[in-house]
């Protein structure tokens, strides 16, 4: 009897052991299927399905940065995970233009086959070394179903958040816990959000590849008082059965500056859609709008007229500036396929002159003055000889913007979006003719105060969504602040130094760097203008953010070939930034030109004092860049010629 009991006990123990092994094995399989890590293993994204709700969490180097948060494409439907698959991809590609000449695309991707109460969907979760990306796809969407890309962000209550504010100073820092105590909260916030965590990590929330997602508007965010979380709920409005969402991104870096060189937004964007992009040239452009009313030493006053534009073209040609942009009021009326020119301007003569001088012309178009249909507009601009269009007052309209990008590409036109544009992050990979956009407070625009702090904030926040048209590079700062321009401030509101202005043209990444001052203002400071003149635009081989701190300073270094361009700016107190040249090649000597503030420079009282000096450096040299209050510092470094 005892033997029977013992045998039974042994048998029972054996069964329990076997069952435990099976359960442990199942647990490991389940965890493996719902866990995806970045190639460097630092980032772990874990997903759970519990009670018909799908949640995710994100850890980086053992730190929980996003706690359990819901995500769904059919928020009112229960979901179940049917199958999973995981794969690793690694390749590289070459942008038509950008911050890098080659980009490595390396990620692990978890694919989840989902069932939403009979509606099949697929969720793609990518883990990069620089963050995560989520996309839903539904191949056959029932017409009665109303999808929405819903996602929570389980941030810590003590994390601090920053956000763009259109043409005003970006908002923040706001401690997330404070939202619960506020009487009123801004209902929706623009992308990108930047979060400084209580664990000394930096997060950016944004999206990419909206161009490939018909039916979705641009992402926005709000604080949900009930959930006590930041959420986004982007509804799908398309009528066809196929649904593809944009990629929802969570970028993760230990340094805030590295968010600016994070390549995840470009990597998840659709590949190049143009068969031959050879006609797309990034570059610098002169611009007439802020120069109107400027009077030269010889008595000439700039305006909307042929002679003014010939002067711009001469200066562009002499200084290797690729473009000249003619802004508003070069025409008086619009009709189908035709624009009535101003009688002050002989546009054909200007176009012919620019062509002879090797300068391309960009023309403005204001939709408020009578849009006659974009399908006719772009071929007409091409017929006029324009190489691009600056689109004004088009509004934050996603379908219109997508069509405008594609139609301009069909007519081989660059397009620069003005006035509160859609942040089509990643679109420059797919349609590189989308050369820049004014997703910021452009200098002198709206006649608001433009401070050193505002610049640093926009450089670290607004610029995350892609190329910016900020109109940096004012050299006649005193004249502008004196109200001497027709299209400028009537009182001092541009707070900067002339060296900071040169640095800003490098720090703000764009495929089209629009320098807004008069040719004579640049000629008067030709030794400082050399930095802008020699600086290539868009065709960078490598980019590094050497220093960055919100509301304090930023230093950007960009390489083209063997030459480096370095630009720094500092907020109001000023200070010294040690720039270590450890990115130079070993054993080489380099010539360096410094473009600097002086001891007397001040962004309010003496903005145009500067000096230029030369020297030699090598790898490891430390440059202590001394920067005046609200000022800047620039360096042009190139190999010493034998």
From TrEMBL:
Residues 36-271 form the Glycosyl-hydrolase 97 N-terminal domain. Keywords: Calcium, Glycosidase, Hydrolase. Pfam families: GH97_C, GH97_N, Glyco_hydro_97. The keyword Hydrolase applies. It comes from the Bacteria. Residues 290-438 form the Glycosyl-hydrolase 97 catalytic domain. Its cofactor is Ca(2+). One of its GO terms (molecular function) is carbohydrate binding. Residues 539-637 form the Glycosyl-hydrolase 97 C-terminal oligomerisation domain. Monomer. This is Alpha-glucosidase.
């Amino acid at each position: 009897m005892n033997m029977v009991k013992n045998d039974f006990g042994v048998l029972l123990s054996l069964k329990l052991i076997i069952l435990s092994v099976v359960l442990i094995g199942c647990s490991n399989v389940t965890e493996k299927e719902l866990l995806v890590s970045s190639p460097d293993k630092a980032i772990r994204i874990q997903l759970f399905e519990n009670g018909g709700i799908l949640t995710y969490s994100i850890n980086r180097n053992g730190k929980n940065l996003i706690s359990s948060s819901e995500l769904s494409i059919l928020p009112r439907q229960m979901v179940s995970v049917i199958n999973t698959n995981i794969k690793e991809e690694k390749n590289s590609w070459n942008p038509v233009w950008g911050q890098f000449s080659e980009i490595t695309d390396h990620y692990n991707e978890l694919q989840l086959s989902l069932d939403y109460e009979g509606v099949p969907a697929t969720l793609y979760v990518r883990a990069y070394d620089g963050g995560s990306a989520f996309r839903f796809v539904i191949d056959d969407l029932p017409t009665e179903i109303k999808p929405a890309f819903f996602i929570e962000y389980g941030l810590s209550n003590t994390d601090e958040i920053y956000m763009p504010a259109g043409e005003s100073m970006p908002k923040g820092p706001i401690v997330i816990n404070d939202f619960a105590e506020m009487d009123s909260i801004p209902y929706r916030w623009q992308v990108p959000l930047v979060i400084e965590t209580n664990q000394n990590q930096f997060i950016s929330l944004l999206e990419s590849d909206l161009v490939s997602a018909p039916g979705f508007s641009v992402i926005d965010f709000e604080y949900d008082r009930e959930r006590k979380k930041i959420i986004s709920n982007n509804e799908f409005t398309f009528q066809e059965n196929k649904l593809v969402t944009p990629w929802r991104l969570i970028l993760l870096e230990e340094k805030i500056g590295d968010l600016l060189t994070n390549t995840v937004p470009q990597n998840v964007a659709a590949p190049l859609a143009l068969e031959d992009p050879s006609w797309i040239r990034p570059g610098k452009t002169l611009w007439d709008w802020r120069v109107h009313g400027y009077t030269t030493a010889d008595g000439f006053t700039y305006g909307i007229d042929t002679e003014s534009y010939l002067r711009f073209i001469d200066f562009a040609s002499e200084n290797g500036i690729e473009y000249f942009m003619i802004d508003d009021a070069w025409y008086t009326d619009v009709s189908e396929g035709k624009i009535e020119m101003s009688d002050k301007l002989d546009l054909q003569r200007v176009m012919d002159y620019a062509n002879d001088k090797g300068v391309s012309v960009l023309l403005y178009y204001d939709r408020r003055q009578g849009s006659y249909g974009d399908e006719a507009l772009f071929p007409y601009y091409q017929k006029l000889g324009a190489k691009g269009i600056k689109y004004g007052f088009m509004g934050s309209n996603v379908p219109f913007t997508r069509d405008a990008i594609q139609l301009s590409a069909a007519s081989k036109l660059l397009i620069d979006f003005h006035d509160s544009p859609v942040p089509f992050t990643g679109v420059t990979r797919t349609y590189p003719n989308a050369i820049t956009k004014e997703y910021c407070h452009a200098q002198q625009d709206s006649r608001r105060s433009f401070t050193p702090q505002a610049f640093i904030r926009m450089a670290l926040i607004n610029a995350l969504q892609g190329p910016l048209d900020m109109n940096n590079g004012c050299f006649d700062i005193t004249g502008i602040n004196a109200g001497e321009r027709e299209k400028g401030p009537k009182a001092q509101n541009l707070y900067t130094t002339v060296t900071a202005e040169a640095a800003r043209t490098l720090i703000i990444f764009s495929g089209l760097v629009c320098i807004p001052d008069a040719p004579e203002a640049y000629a008067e400071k030709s030794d400082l203008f050399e930095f802008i003149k020699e600086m290539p635009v868009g065709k960078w081989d490598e980019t590094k953010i050497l220093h960055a701190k919100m509301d304090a300073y930023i230093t950007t270094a960009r390489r083209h070939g063997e030459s480096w361009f370095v630009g720094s700016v500092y907020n109001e107190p000023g200070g010294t930034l040690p720039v270590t040249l450890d990115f130079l090649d070993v054993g080489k000597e380099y010539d360096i030109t410094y473009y600097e503030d002086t001891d007397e420079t001040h962004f309010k009282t003496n903005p145009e004092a500067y000096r230029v000096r030369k020297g030699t450096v090598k790898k490891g040299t430390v440059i202590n860049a001394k920067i005046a209050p609200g000022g800047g510092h620039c360096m042009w470094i190139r190999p010493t010629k034998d």
